[in-house]
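chain below, 540 aa
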Amino acid sequence: MFELPKKSVKGRSNQDQTQKSNAQNIQDNFLTQEGNELDFEEHPYLLDIYNNESRYMVLASSRQVGKSTYLALKLMYEALKGGNESIMFLTAGDKQLSEVRDDKIRSQFENNRQLKNRCFGPGSLNNKNKFRLSNQSTIHFKAIGKNVGSARGVTARIIYFDEVQSIPRKNISVVRASARTFKDTAQYVFAGTFLSEDNTLNQLFLDTCQNEWIIRCSACGENNPPLGMQHIDLDRPYLFCVHCMEPMDAKNGTWIPQNPNSVKAGYRICSLMTPECSWRTDSHDGLLDLFESEPRDKFMNEMMGLPSVKGVNLITRTQLMELCGDEPMVDPANVHGNIQQRPSVAAIDWSFDKDDRAASHTIITFAQLEYGFIKVLYAKRFTGPEYSGSNGPDLILDKVCSLVNAFKSNFVFGDYGMGHLENQRLRQRLGPKVIEMLYHGGSKPVHYNSQLMRYEISKTQTLDLVFLYLSQGFFRFPREEEFRPFYEDILNVYTIYDEENRTKKYGKSGNGPDDFAQLLNLCLIGIGKMQPDALPWNRF
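prediction:
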């Protein structure tokens, strides 16, 4: 059934012939789930993936781009082309397992009576956990997202991991032990859809050659960067060149490794490279429709095949812009008496870096309660050559003291960690109004440690409240064009849910700062302590 061609093709290496024959044989002998022929001409990016015979491959993809179909057909092909093969197919959960086993694999038998008769005869087995075919090949089906025990004791030469982003890394290590008997021939395929950058799938993909579908623009002749968010424009409902903005044909691409030194194969499939990609639809489920309606991270993961930074972005840029008013920041040299007379707090996050291009610098903000809203009066990030030299810490200390005195703030809240020494110096100048706060893992949102004279705060619980107040509109910011560099920090804060430990964690994106978000947290706690009856949902 799967005979390889015996004749050579002029100008093509033996390896190329073998690779082409794999995809051709799969195309000749299998159908799609709907019973249609496989179409590599309209989906040229799939050809290399189906032909790839690497013993280690990572396939990162958007949703609905043929990933599961590939796994099902390649699995069947490997089981049938020889015999006495041992294969294991793994997913995170039972639902995912049944979708591939029943919808993708069993549909092949329903669409092809000849194939079914060949696969199942005397001595064969067809149940939810195992297929034993007439040629003595065995396919095991296991869900190992939370319980890897079901896969223990199973020996397999070829192992397919689907939805690997939801499988703990330690469970993958346990399963790979199943192939140790085949140390010279074992094969692994890891497939899934990105979540966050520290997720299992992204960690696996970064270790590969990272093949990206690079499209050369027929209009300007330039190669485009890997398909990504730079190819999304609400005014352009088509795939366009980022250099000349002219439309591009997604089929005019080539797989080019971004990490060519790795011997491990890796491919990223994005919705933009598929002929099924629709940009605007009457049912509002086109790519740009979803870009407008879906959460940023879900769109990046499921439509773009990209890892989001931490999985869940808690607030949008539009929401933050709506919190910005028409007034500029308060001028520290001319603070109105009405502001000075009302209670206010300052929050400071210390950071000293000799490189002025670093992501984090000392930052301070001032806030007070006004008509039931927490109003940010002023913010400053101490950047520039004058603060980067050896005199920087003293200059910043002088400036901070001057600002606190100008606003006549009641309290100054500072981070305990690396800022402890500066907090002590500040306390010598400003007295007991300087209070330190330390993130910890306690059960209470805020606890005052009288012995150490500092507040110990739960990062998750208190930041939960910050984003609750933000989403409900209980913060007020200065005008957007002036305040934009600070609210960008808030957009760098993400959460990811730890499935294994069932906990939520906060983190920040890449090299971007989250400093101002942390200052909002300190301000909220300070105002909540200073005016406990004035805030809704006050848990401090």
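The chain has three domains: 13-42+64-192, 208-307, 317-530. Confidence is low (pLDDT under 50) at residues 1-20, 354-359.
thats it, cya
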